[in-house]
């Protein structure tokens, strides 16, 4: 071996040892730990293959690809499980798949209760992207109970599956109504993740709500899309949920080039791109740049420092999809009264859908709140029926 | 018809979006260029972008200086690439396998570190962005001003790097060595230059440039790191490299085309006049890949470096 080869090898070794050492040091001592975080204790699962091992968990959760910390959908489901842990004394375990291809394996592992003797009372699949994987596994394990969030699975074909659904159109109509009243430019928009039935419900409800309180937004409905309420898409498949850069650039176009002052960020974690753009543009544009959050309370994300939120915020409200209520109810049914297959629908009437009010971060004029609440009461009573598709097409 | 003002604003925005969307692609494609010109296939661009994006956010988070974030991204990309270089050049490992390993490693490592640094699993805290460079004289011109008047410094750096790369590869002795390492390594060897070290440098440079592309994604047009936030841009950069026929300006044009099509699909969903095209958005997204296939299949002969993908054996006689 020549001397140059040796020196290359030495350099290689130094680099590898350096990286490994740095990694071990960071993991062991964690010198970067943020100073103000409250430590959350997460239960880690260790799968053993020994038999005679009772299952310590009642419920298993397979999260959507955004993972915990999305400050949105997965976090809400996690909150529901934590509530159940507190109030019902159940135990749960979970997994965070990195891509849609991993769902089936994880669901099957739980369904076969690998490593444990007895099955889980309930396996919760977060997000409609898990539907195919769930149906495959449900066929293989006919006695295992499942719940899936945001997807309808035929209870006749799959009698063990509960579909936890939301009438998103109703929730979107609430924030749309608020947007219609708050807008100063009479131009509002929704940044949806991509086009499918669910985001059609979001878009249809949002446009309907905005038109209801502000007929000026409706404009000329002979257009393929409403004149002053733009429906825009971040991407064309599930990757749109994580594509913060794409959401950022789309938001820039909506606020900057098109002159909207309110954008409803209905695109999962990538919605942060919209919110941050609103924060930045608020300082330079001659009209406000406000965002509307989705799924969980996100008004704090629009403040200058979200870890210590302080007024003002660029996020004027959030459409609350109470995934936590759905998860809690599903767990409660499965562990106490018995699993009820079929459909659980979150509506404005049953508290499954709502909009965020946080007067500490932004005071909405009482007259506007009154008007939105009156609209909400009409939806809850069934007097106003919110469309569930792009009704103007 | 919406008013002319909106149309002008949108045209300007479309140009701006083209530049913004293409910058990370062009940077990573230039990276791929340096690696592949020396004969090492680098499909790990995606991983190097990802680690660059993470390092940029982490360094900015701790120092509050986005330029240090950029520096950290370049170094981290280079370090990750050096692993690829060692495996492929020193140990003559399979370049595709090593590249795939780089991508998987970067995905896992950044997700882990996200939890270590910020205690979250999805999105990091927001950090200071690179401030935009405002060029006063042109920022008032209607369309051009929007497009070029106030952009991230990395956009201009990208344009400069394209020219610099062209100069380095075609006009300097070092560039000649890079080309020789990819075309005919035995000739380079015969001339008394170490093929290994030229290839090493090429691969490390590719990591640095990809890392820069990742930094652009993370602290220039976003201001936080999200798990897997590159969503396949490294692979699109590879496509741009191939479509651009392994030349710097080819990379720029291909990257700009892909960026334009990306921007166009947003414009389609914004302009009511275009909304009849909404159902074809997926089709438009497909165009870049179709173009690459068409280009490869025959319109124009695509010429990769001759010795690409083959480890250089000193003893081999050709």
3D architecture notes:
The complex is a heterodimer of chains A (393) and B (318). Chain A is of the alpha/beta class and 393 residues long. Chain A is built from 11 helices and 12 strands. The radius of gyration of chain A is 24 Å and the shape is globular. Chain B has a two-stranded antiparallel sheet. The mean pLDDT of chain B is 85. Chain B is mostly helical and 318 residues long. Chain B has 12 helices and 2 strands, in the order H-H-H-H-E-H-E-H-H-H-H-H-H-H. Chain B has a single domain (2-296), classed as ABC transporter involved in vitamin B12 uptake, BtuC, CATH 1.10.3470. In chain B, helix 1 packs parallel to helix 6, helix 3 (66-90) runs antiparallel to helix 4 (95-118) and helix 11 packs antiparallel against helix 12 (281-299). The interface between A and B is large, with 60 and 62 residues.
């Amino acid at each position: 071996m020549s001397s140059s080869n040796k020196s290359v090898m030495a350099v290689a070794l130094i680099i590898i040892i350096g990286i490994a050492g740095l990694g071990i040091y960071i993991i062991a001592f964690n010198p970067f730990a943020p100073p103000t975080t409250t430590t959350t204790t997460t239960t880690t699962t260790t799968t053993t293959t020994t038999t005679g091992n009772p299952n310590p968990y009642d419920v298993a959760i397979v999260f959507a690809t955004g993972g915990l910390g999305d400050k949105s959908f997965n976090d809400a489901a996690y909150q529901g499980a934590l509530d159940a842990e507190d109030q019902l004394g159940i135990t749960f375990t979970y997994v965070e798949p990195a891509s849609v291809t991993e769902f089936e394996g994880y669901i099957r592992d739980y369904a076969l209760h690998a490593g444990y003797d007895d099955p889980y009372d309930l396996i919760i699949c977060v997000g409609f992207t898990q539907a195919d994987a769930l149906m495959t596994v449900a066929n293989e394990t006919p006695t295992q109970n499942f719940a899936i969030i945001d997807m309808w699975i035929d209870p006749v074909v799959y009698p063990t599956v509960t579909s936890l659904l939301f009438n998103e159109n109703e929730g979107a109509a609430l924030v749309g109504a608020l947007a219609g009243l708050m807008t100063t430019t009479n131009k509002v928009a929704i940044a949806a993740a991509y086009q499918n039935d669910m985001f059609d419900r979001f878009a249809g409800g949002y446009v309907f709500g905005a038109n209801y309180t502000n007929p000026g937004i409706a404009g000329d409905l002979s257009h393929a899309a409403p004149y002053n309420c733009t429906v825009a898409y971040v991407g064309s498949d599930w990757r749109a949920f994580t594509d913060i850069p794409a959401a950022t650039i789309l938001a820039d176009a909506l606020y900057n080039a098109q002159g909207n002052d309110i954008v409803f960020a209905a695109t999962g974690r990538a919605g942060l791109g919209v919110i941050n753009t609103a924060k930045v543009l608020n300082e330079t544009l001659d009209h406000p740049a406000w965002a509307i959050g989705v799924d969980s309370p996100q008004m704090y994300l629009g403040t200058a420092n979200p870890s210590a939120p302080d007024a003002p915020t660029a996020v004027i409200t959030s459409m609350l999809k109470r995934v936590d209520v759905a998860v809690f109810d599903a767990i409660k049914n499965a562990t106490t009264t018995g699993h009820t297959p079929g459909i659980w629908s979150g509506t404005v009437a049953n508290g499954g859908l709502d909009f965020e009010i946080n007067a500490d971060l932004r005071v909405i004029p009482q007259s506007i709140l009154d008007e939105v609440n009156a609209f909400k009461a009409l939806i809850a009573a069934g007097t106003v029926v919110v469309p569930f598709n792009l009704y103007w097409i | 018809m919406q008013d002319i003002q909106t149309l002008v604003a949108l045209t300007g925005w479309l140009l701006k979006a083209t530049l913004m969307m293409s910058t990370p692609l062009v940077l990573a494609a230039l990276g791929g260029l340096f690696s592949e010109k020396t004969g090492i296939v680098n499909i790990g661009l995606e991983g190097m972008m990802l680690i660059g994006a993470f390092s940029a956010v982490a360094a900015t988070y701790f120092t509050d200086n986005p330029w240090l974030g950029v520096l950290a991204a370049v170094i981290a990309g280079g370090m990750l690439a050096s692993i690829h270089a060692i495996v492929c050049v020193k140990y003559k490992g399979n370049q595709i396998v090593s590249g795939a390993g780089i991508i998987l490693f970067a995905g896992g490592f950044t997700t882990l570190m996200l939890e270590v640094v910020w205690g979250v699993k999805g999105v990091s805290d927001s950090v200071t962005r690179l401030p935009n460079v405002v060029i006063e004289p042109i920022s008032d011109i209607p369309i051009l001003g929007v497009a070029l008047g106030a952009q991230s410094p990395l956009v201009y750096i990208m344009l400069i790097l394209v020219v610099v790369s062209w100069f380095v590869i075609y006009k300097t002795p070092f560039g000649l060595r890079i080309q020789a390492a990819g075309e005919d390594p035995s000739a380079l060897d015969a001339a008394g230059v170490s093929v290994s070290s030229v290839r090493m440098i090429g691969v490390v440079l590719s990591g640095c440039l990809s890392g820069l592309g990742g930094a652009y994604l993370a602290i220039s047009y976003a201001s936080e790191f999200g798990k897997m936030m590159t969503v396949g841009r490294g692979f699109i950069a590879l496509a741009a490299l191939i479509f651009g026929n392994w030349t710097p300006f080819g990379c720029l044009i291909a990257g700009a085309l892909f960026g334009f099509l990306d921007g166009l699909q947003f414009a389609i969903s914004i302009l009511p006049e275009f909304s009849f095209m909404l159902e074809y958005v997926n089709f438009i997204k497909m165009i870049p890949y179709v173009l690459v296939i068409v280009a490869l299949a025959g319109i124009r002969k695509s010429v990769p470096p001759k010795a690409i993908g083959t480890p250089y054996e000193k003893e081999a006689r050709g």
